[in-house]
Amino acid sequence: FEAVAQDSLMAAVKPALQHLVKVLAESNPGRYSFLWHWFDEIYVLLDLLLQQHYLARCSASFSENFYSLKRIPMGDGRQQPLATAGLPKRQHWKSLLLLVLVPYLKGKLEKLVSSLREEDEYSIHPPSSSWKRFYRAFLAAYPYVNMTWEGWFLIQQLGYILGKAEHHSPMLKLAGVRLVRLTAEDILALEKKWAETTPTQTHSITSRVQSALRKALGGIAFSLSTGLSVSVFFLQFLDWWYSSENQETIKALTALPTPPPPVHLEHEPSSALLPSLKTVCPLCRKVRVNATALATSGFVFCYRCAYSHVKAHQRCPVTGYATELQHLVKLYSPES
Q: DSSP assignment of 91-145, as one string?
């Protein structure tokens, strides 16, 4: 479960940030339009920084560490190294490139295909041009290539679930690593590493600049990781809130019939009884003059009767609801 869930975690982060940048760009194009224009490049740089930080410190990507997983070299029969030991350089850089570069290139390819399809609908190239034939062949082949790519991942996941494969993702196999759960020793080592503060004695200007730059990058990565960790639950809530199942539930609740009016209070001995004729005032028992309704209950009286009773008792004569003089509503008949 953790292996599959950590994949969906990072897949939910980018659309959320993209929506935020889009809102900012639309609200203030002069200041934030560059963020929208270069969003993919800015995101891949931040993702590179974040993943490098976690791979170096925890031997795992951000999402893998969030679900208490770590990467270890594949085919290593020795005792599992601690998460703080890091990956070998080869596996480290392959993991970093596959975590950051592959999703970036795939997203760019999807945007290219989308733009080519739009261009194909309003194409100005001659039907026999080589460029026209090339990108039409590319558009025709892309769905099959994408289906093969997704099928590769699906088959790998099925093999992992059935216990026939060591990896749930082909990217892990290409990186030469596999996922395992963090042990108690790993957690203690990580806590100790985060708590350690070891100031280094640097004398040269170059060493000081490198140390300051390393600390700054580490601080930025730590801030990003902390912010993402806090926002993960909020993103999951938004995903549930805007899901089709929840929207159907909301529509079903809002489509319920209007509830009945409140039950009238029991009549007190001094309360007015409703007359059988609708044109008779419940107070004076005569045909209403200057018909006036009480907004709190809806009953209609003579204006003089309603005014005198409400002024004296501050309640409806029939229901006993609390009523003020401003609740008197004069009614006008069509003949008047």
A: HHHHHHHHHHHHHHHHHHHHHHHHHHHHHHHT--S-TT-HHHHHHHHHHHHHHHH
Its pTM stands at 0.53
Q: Where are the domains of the chain?
A: 2-195+210-242, 265-336
Residue 321 corresponds to which amino acid?
Y
**Does residue 80 come out as left (phi exceeding 0), alpha (psi in the -120 to 50 range) or beta?**
beta
Q: What is the pLDDT of residues 62-88, one digit of tens each?
A: 878 777 788 888 775 566 777 777 788
The number of CA neighbours under 13 Å toward the Cβ of 154 is: 6
How far is residue 285 CA from its own chain's centroid?
63
Q: Assign 194 to helix, strand or coil.
A: helix
pLDDT for 270 beyond 60: no
Question: For 113-135, what is each residue's pLDDT tens digit?
Answer: 887 777 666 555 555 567 667 77
In words, the CATH class of domain 265-336 is: alpha beta
Q: With contact defined as beta carbons under 8 Å apart, do 42 and 220 qualify?
A: no
DSSP 8-state assignment for residue 270 = T
Helix (H, G, I), strand (E, B) or coil at 75: coil
